[in-house]
Specification:
about 150 residues, mainly alpha
């Protein structure tokens, strides 16, 4: 398997492992979160917004400089919509920490190591190509002067 493909798969695996504990915690408490219709609707809308934010984080398109008023507005809306989940925030934050620790311990160091190997491979290929070009230039020069120095 090519190193770049392996690196991409490791990054995807790291992302999935980092959110997996949160998904398990939500799954375990799902009946509590959907016990009433208003909680279910609130959870659905808030979950949709949360999924959009997770997707934006995953593709790295989250704007780096958002005006504070927009950040606070989004946070306030999410607090209202995700009220059933906020009640279990300690559990969910704990699961988020577990996910990040798993990602750091399993995937992050391997991704860094793969990137170094990819960079080293590219450098080695460039050096090899330069040496071949220099050798070819020397051989051509010798042919042009008929072996005379």
């Amino acid at each position: 398997m090519k190193l770049t493909v392996k690196k991409v798969l490791m990054q995807i695996g790291g992302f999935l492992v980092s959110i997996l504990p949160i998904l398990v915690a939500v799954g375990v408490k799902w009946n509590d979160y959907t016990s009433t219709t208003s909680r279910s609707v609130s959870l659905g809308i808030g979950g949709g917004v949360a999924l959009i934010l997770i997707f934006l984080k995953a593709i790295g398109k989250l704007p780096q400089k958002i005006k504070p008023i927009f950040r606070y507005s989004i946070a306030l809306i999410l607090v209202f919509l995700l009220d059933p989940l906020i009640q279990d925030l300690k559990l969910l934050l704990g699961m988020a920490i577990v996910g990040e620790v798993l990602d750091m311990s399993i995937f992050s160091w391997q991704i860094t190591r793969l990137q170094k190997r990819i960079d080293a491979g590219i450098t080695a290929e460039e050096i090899s190509k330069q040496q071949e070009a220099q050798t070819k230039a020397i051989v051509d020069a010798i042919k042009n002067i008929n072996g005379r120095v």
